[in-house]
Structure formats: C-alpha cells, structure tokens
Amino acid sequence: MFISKILYKAYLLGVKNKFIYINGYKLLLPYSHPLMFINRFYPLYDLFIGDLAKIIPSDQYVIDVGANVGDSILRMFSKNPSLTYFGFEPVSQFFDLAKINLSAANKINSKKINLNKISVGTSNVSSFSISNGTARKSDSPNGNSQVSLDDFTLNLDSRCGLIKVDTDGFDWDVLKSGHNLISNDLPFLFFEAQVDSDAHYQSYLEQIHFLFQLGYCFSIFDNLGNFICHCKDYLSVLNFLKLLKMAPVYPFKIPYFDFCASHETKFDEIVEIVEKFNATR
Questions:
Q1: Count of other CB atoms within 10 angstroms of residue 140
Q2: What is the sign, positive or negative, of the torsion defined by CA atoms of 269, 275, 277, 279?
Q3: Nearest 5 degrees, angle CA 217-CA 165-CA 267?
Q4: Which of 98, 116, 124, 209 could potentially form a cystine with 143 if both were Cys, beta carbons 3.0 to 4.6 Å apart?
Q5: Is the pLDDT of residue 2 over 50?
C-alpha cells in the first residue's frame, strides 16, 4: 500500500485530463480523485458490480448508497440499462458531478436514474470530511437526520434487486436502516466491511448475524476487486472481520473487504457469475 501511494502521487503529476471512460461513458472527476489511478493500475476494481447488475430482472430496482460521482451506477447501467436506479450522495462536490456524469445515461433510458442528495442510515450526521475522492461522515446526536432505506422504499411498487453501499465504515448502519426491505425482498447486497474501531466491528457483527438469520451467503473480494472466496458459514465471515482488526497500523492495515451477500436461493447464480468473472479477466 505504501508503494501504491507513491505511485498515486507520481501519477497525478502527469495527469492532464480529469476524466475517464466507463464502458463508453465519460466520467468527470475531481483532480485528486483516486479513480483515475485505480482505473489505470487496478483494472478489476468495482467491475464485479456491473456483472451482478446484469442478472437483476428488469422490473426491479437498484440502490446505490454513497454514489460519489456516479461511477458505480454507470458500470451497472452499462450492463443493464432496463433497471431503475436510486443513487444517494449527500456531498455537493460529488453529487453535482454525478448529475453531470449520469445525464447522458438518463437521456438514453427515459430518466431511470434517480439521484438523491441525502445521507442514508439510522443515526444523525453532523458533518462530512472529504479526502482522496471520498466523503467520510461523523455521527452526532445533534446532527442532521438521515433517511432510512425502509422509509425511502416504503411506497415503491416494485421489488429491490440489489443494494450497493460504499460509505467508508458506516455500511453497517445503511444495512440496519433497511432491515424490513432486506427481509421482504431478499436483494443482492454489495457492501464494504471497513473496521476502524471496536464499535464498528461489533456493529458489523450484528448485521452479518442478521443476514445469516435470513439465509444469506457471502462472497468476499479484496479492496482492489479480486475475488477471494465464498463463505456459507458465520465463522468464516467472522474471520475476515477479525483480519480487519489484526493489523491496525499503516502500512500493514487491510483497508476493507467487499462483501457480496446473496440469499441461499440465489447463491448458485453468484457462484456462476464469479466463475465467469474470473475466467474472462
């Protein structure tokens, strides 16, 4: 990771254009956004989410919490433009760029991409700090309220097929805010497990336990998009969470794992997608 940071800073010195292309769609980026570097040196990053979106039925919708500049929605839309997408990005710097980046896709498909400038979760948010192309929230009892996934989707007629979450350590809270939605629709889930404190560790344990009670299985990816393994038992997933706590000091710290959770009735589909994903990369 230390070498990667050096390469990243060196790479920025030579950057002239502040955009990349995702499956033919132009994506504008803030100058220091790491996606320019990641896209160049780690080509598997965030690719699996597009393959996952391909199998969602056209009458269902997708939720992207922590939409940032719209890159994940573009990856999913380019693979399955028939779906309705709901993106959530509370930070103006990223929300405004996401609107621009997704405007072309929206014109193609009758405005099926809906962006919301609001935070998602169960607690109150006092502020967001921006660093390296992402926003990190902090909680406060006196902060602004958030919308829960359960409340937002309460009056939607269709079913949820996929929930993608990337909120830098607070993904557990987003999942907690959608317990009714997840229990009823059993969507695919794709979220980060980023453990920065004992409290976060316990919070992730609670959500993982909740998902196992519903019959979910897990497929684990590293933070650069490489598939690691499938896990169908609680203890195996617990071991990955423990790894996030074992080396808390840079440069040995593991930033996060991506967890793809699928209900046991859909697990074979995930296994097949992963096999194709690995075979074609």
A1: 12
A2: negative
A3: 20
A4: 124
A5: no
Q: Residue 26 forms beta bridges with which residues?
A: 21
Mean pLDDT, to the nearest integer, of 114-119? 95
Sign of CA pseudo-dihedral 263, 57, 116, 222 = positive
Both tokens assigned to 52? 């996952």
pLDDT in tens, 62-111: 999 999 999 999 999 999 999 999 999 999 999 999 999 999 888 877 67
| Greatest alpha-carbon span in the chain | 50
Q: Which two tokens stand for residue 158?
A: 């269709």
262: Cβ contacts below 8 Å, ≥ 6 apart? 188, 189, 216, 217, 218, 219, 269, 270
Burial of residue 47, with CB atoms counted within 10 A of its CB: 0-12 exposed, 13-18 middle, 19 or more buried? middle
**Which domains, from first to last, does the chain contain?**
42-279 (3.40.50.150)
Using alpha carbons, select from 84, 25, 87 the residue that is nearest to residue 56.
84
